Amino acid sequence: MAAHRFELNGDIVAGAANRLAEFLAAHQGPVTLHINSPGGDALEGAALMAEVERHGAVTVRVQGIAASAATLPMVAAREVILHPTAMVMIHEPSALTGGTADELRDTAAVLDKMSSTYAEAYARHTGHPVSRISAWMKAETWLTAAEAVELRFADQIEGAKAPQMIAAFDYTKFRQPPLGLVRLAQQNGWATGSSVIPQQEKKNAA
Length: 206
Description:
GO terms for molecular function: ATP-dependent peptidase activity; ATPase binding; serine-type endopeptidase activity. With 206 residues, the protein is an alpha/beta fold. It has a single domain, classed as 2-enoyl-CoA Hydratase, Chain A, domain 1, CATH 3.90.226.10. The chain has helices spanning 16-26, 42-55, 71-76, 101-126, 130-139, 145-150, 179-187, 199-205; strands spanning 4-9, 31-37, 58-67, 79-82, 87-90, 141-144, 156-157. Strands 1, 2, 3, 4, 5, 6 and 7 form a seven-stranded mixed β-sheet that branches. Helix 3 links the parallel strand 3 (58-67) and strand 4. Helix 1 runs parallel beside helix 2 and helix 4 (101-126) crosses helix 5. The protein starts with a strand and ends with a helix.
Protein backbone atom coordinates (compact mmCIF):
# COMPACT_ATOMS: atom_id res chain seq x y z
CA MET A 1 0.00 0.00 0.00
CA ALA A 2 1.35 3.40 -1.00
CA ALA A 3 2.11 5.83 1.80
CA HIS A 4 -0.19 8.81 2.21
CA ARG A 5 1.43 12.17 1.38
CA PHE A 6 1.45 15.43 3.36
CA GLU A 7 3.05 18.64 2.04
CA LEU A 8 4.94 21.06 4.30
CA ASN A 9 5.78 23.92 1.95
CA GLY A 10 6.73 27.53 2.57
CA ASP A 11 6.83 29.28 5.93
CA ILE A 12 5.88 27.28 9.02
CA VAL A 13 3.11 29.23 10.73
CA ALA A 14 0.60 28.69 13.53
CA GLY A 15 -1.77 25.83 12.77
CA ALA A 16 0.71 23.70 10.81
CA ALA A 17 1.05 21.13 13.60
CA ASN A 18 -2.72 20.89 14.03
CA ARG A 19 -3.15 20.23 10.31
CA LEU A 20 -0.49 17.52 10.42
CA ALA A 21 -2.05 15.99 13.56
CA GLU A 22 -5.45 15.77 11.85
CA PHE A 23 -3.87 14.21 8.77
CA LEU A 24 -1.95 11.62 10.79
CA ALA A 25 -5.04 10.76 12.83
CA ALA A 26 -6.88 10.03 9.60
CA HIS A 27 -4.01 7.94 8.17
CA GLN A 28 -2.70 5.48 10.73
CA GLY A 29 -0.38 3.68 8.32
CA PRO A 30 2.82 4.83 6.58
CA VAL A 31 2.94 8.52 5.71
CA THR A 32 5.37 10.49 3.56
CA LEU A 33 5.99 14.07 4.66
CA HIS A 34 7.34 16.21 1.80
CA ILE A 35 9.25 19.27 3.03
CA ASN A 36 10.27 22.37 1.09
CA SER A 37 10.41 25.05 3.76
CA PRO A 38 12.79 27.79 4.95
CA GLY A 39 11.38 27.42 8.47
CA GLY A 40 9.31 29.85 10.47
CA ASP A 41 7.72 29.55 13.91
CA ALA A 42 10.18 27.57 16.05
CA LEU A 43 7.56 26.43 18.56
CA GLU A 44 5.34 25.25 15.72
CA GLY A 45 8.32 23.33 14.34
CA ALA A 46 8.73 21.65 17.73
CA ALA A 47 5.05 20.71 17.71
CA LEU A 48 5.45 19.23 14.22
CA MET A 49 8.37 17.18 15.53
CA ALA A 50 6.21 15.83 18.34
CA GLU A 51 3.49 14.77 15.89
CA VAL A 52 6.00 12.98 13.65
CA GLU A 53 7.56 11.17 16.63
CA ARG A 54 4.16 10.19 17.98
CA HIS A 55 2.97 8.73 14.68
CA GLY A 56 6.18 6.80 14.06
CA ALA A 57 5.65 5.52 10.53
CA VAL A 58 6.74 8.73 8.79
CA THR A 59 9.22 9.08 5.95
CA VAL A 60 10.42 12.59 5.15
CA ARG A 61 11.44 13.64 1.66
CA VAL A 62 13.15 17.02 1.36
CA GLN A 63 12.91 18.69 -2.02
CA GLY A 64 14.44 22.14 -2.21
CA ILE A 65 15.15 23.10 1.38
CA ALA A 66 14.58 22.20 5.02
CA ALA A 67 15.87 25.05 7.16
CA SER A 68 15.46 26.32 10.70
CA ALA A 69 12.16 25.10 12.23
CA ALA A 70 11.54 22.78 9.27
CA THR A 71 14.46 20.58 10.34
CA LEU A 72 12.74 19.60 13.60
CA PRO A 73 10.03 17.41 12.01
CA MET A 74 12.61 16.31 9.44
CA VAL A 75 15.01 14.67 11.89
CA ALA A 76 12.11 13.10 13.80
CA ALA A 77 11.11 10.89 10.87
CA ARG A 78 11.78 7.17 10.73
CA GLU A 79 13.62 7.76 7.45
CA VAL A 80 14.85 11.00 5.85
CA ILE A 81 15.48 11.09 2.10
CA LEU A 82 16.96 14.17 0.43
CA HIS A 83 16.84 15.18 -3.19
CA PRO A 84 20.44 15.61 -4.48
CA THR A 85 19.94 19.38 -4.77
CA ALA A 86 18.29 19.84 -1.37
CA MET A 87 19.79 22.04 1.35
CA VAL A 88 19.50 21.69 5.13
CA MET A 89 20.19 24.45 7.67
CA ILE A 90 20.17 24.55 11.47
CA HIS A 91 20.62 27.62 13.65
CA GLU A 92 19.60 29.10 16.98
CA PRO A 93 16.03 30.41 17.25
CA SER A 94 15.61 34.16 17.11
CA ALA A 95 12.93 36.74 17.86
CA LEU A 96 12.00 40.18 16.61
CA THR A 97 11.04 41.99 19.78
CA GLY A 98 11.17 45.21 21.74
CA GLY A 99 10.66 46.29 25.30
CA THR A 100 12.54 47.20 28.43
CA ALA A 101 15.97 45.86 29.32
CA ASP A 102 14.38 43.37 31.72
CA GLU A 103 11.92 42.23 29.06
CA LEU A 104 14.71 41.76 26.53
CA ARG A 105 16.74 39.75 29.06
CA ASP A 106 13.69 37.56 29.67
CA THR A 107 13.32 37.01 25.92
CA ALA A 108 17.00 36.10 25.63
CA ALA A 109 16.64 33.59 28.47
CA VAL A 110 13.71 31.94 26.71
CA LEU A 111 15.66 31.76 23.44
CA ASP A 112 18.59 30.15 25.29
CA LYS A 113 16.25 27.48 26.66
CA MET A 114 14.75 26.88 23.23
CA SER A 115 18.23 26.52 21.73
CA SER A 116 19.20 23.97 24.38
CA THR A 117 15.99 22.01 23.92
CA TYR A 118 16.33 21.84 20.15
CA ALA A 119 20.03 20.94 20.36
CA GLU A 120 19.09 18.01 22.59
CA ALA A 121 16.45 16.93 20.07
CA TYR A 122 18.92 17.03 17.17
CA ALA A 123 21.45 15.14 19.28
CA ARG A 124 18.89 12.47 20.15
CA HIS A 125 18.11 11.82 16.50
CA THR A 126 21.62 12.14 15.03
CA GLY A 127 23.78 10.69 17.81
CA HIS A 128 26.04 13.76 17.97
CA PRO A 129 26.96 15.31 21.35
CA VAL A 130 24.78 18.24 22.36
CA SER A 131 27.86 20.47 22.53
CA ARG A 132 28.66 19.76 18.88
CA ILE A 133 25.09 20.40 17.78
CA SER A 134 25.01 23.64 19.77
CA ALA A 135 28.17 24.85 18.05
CA TRP A 136 26.68 24.10 14.63
CA MET A 137 23.49 25.95 15.56
CA LYS A 138 25.39 28.98 16.84
CA ALA A 139 27.37 29.14 13.57
CA GLU A 140 24.22 28.79 11.40
CA THR A 141 25.28 25.64 9.56
CA TRP A 142 24.23 24.92 5.97
CA LEU A 143 24.51 21.37 4.64
CA THR A 144 24.32 19.90 1.17
CA ALA A 145 22.40 16.67 0.79
CA ALA A 146 25.64 14.67 0.93
CA GLU A 147 26.81 16.52 4.05
CA ALA A 148 23.46 16.03 5.77
CA VAL A 149 23.66 12.28 5.17
CA GLU A 150 27.29 12.16 6.31
CA LEU A 151 26.40 13.98 9.55
CA ARG A 152 23.34 11.75 10.11
CA PHE A 153 20.69 14.43 9.69
CA ALA A 154 19.36 12.31 6.82
CA ASP A 155 19.54 8.68 5.76
CA GLN A 156 19.96 8.75 2.01
CA ILE A 157 19.90 10.77 -1.19
CA GLU A 158 17.25 9.85 -3.70
CA GLY A 159 18.27 8.82 -7.20
CA ALA A 160 16.49 11.58 -9.13
CA LYS A 161 18.79 14.09 -10.79
CA ALA A 162 16.34 16.78 -11.96
CA PRO A 163 16.71 20.01 -9.95
CA GLN A 164 13.90 20.82 -7.52
CA MET A 165 12.42 24.28 -6.99
CA ILE A 166 13.57 26.05 -3.81
CA ALA A 167 10.82 27.52 -1.61
CA ALA A 168 10.27 31.25 -2.21
CA PHE A 169 11.83 33.13 0.74
CA ASP A 170 14.10 36.08 1.48
CA TYR A 171 17.27 34.08 2.22
CA THR A 172 19.19 37.32 2.82
CA LYS A 173 17.56 37.34 6.27
CA PHE A 174 19.90 34.56 7.44
CA ARG A 175 23.33 35.45 8.80
CA GLN A 176 25.44 33.23 6.54
CA PRO A 177 23.31 32.06 3.61
CA PRO A 178 24.96 30.30 0.66
CA LEU A 179 25.69 32.68 -2.20
CA GLY A 180 23.45 30.72 -4.54
CA LEU A 181 20.40 31.21 -2.31
CA VAL A 182 21.10 34.94 -1.93
CA ARG A 183 21.28 35.36 -5.70
CA LEU A 184 18.13 33.27 -6.14
CA ALA A 185 16.23 35.53 -3.70
CA GLN A 186 17.50 38.68 -5.40
CA GLN A 187 16.80 37.45 -8.93
CA ASN A 188 13.24 36.39 -8.05
CA GLY A 189 12.35 39.51 -6.09
CA TRP A 190 12.12 37.69 -2.75
CA ALA A 191 14.81 39.84 -1.09
CA THR A 192 13.52 42.82 0.86
CA GLY A 193 16.62 44.99 0.71
CA SER A 194 18.80 43.30 3.33
CA SER A 195 22.47 44.25 3.11
CA VAL A 196 23.72 40.76 3.91
CA ILE A 197 26.94 39.83 2.10
CA PRO A 198 27.51 36.08 1.66
CA GLN A 199 30.72 34.72 3.10
CA GLN A 200 32.28 33.97 -0.29
CA GLU A 201 31.75 37.56 -1.48
CA LYS A 202 33.27 38.87 1.75
CA LYS A 203 36.39 36.80 1.06
CA ASN A 204 36.60 38.01 -2.53
CA ALA A 205 36.27 41.64 -1.42
CA ALA A 206 39.01 41.34 1.21
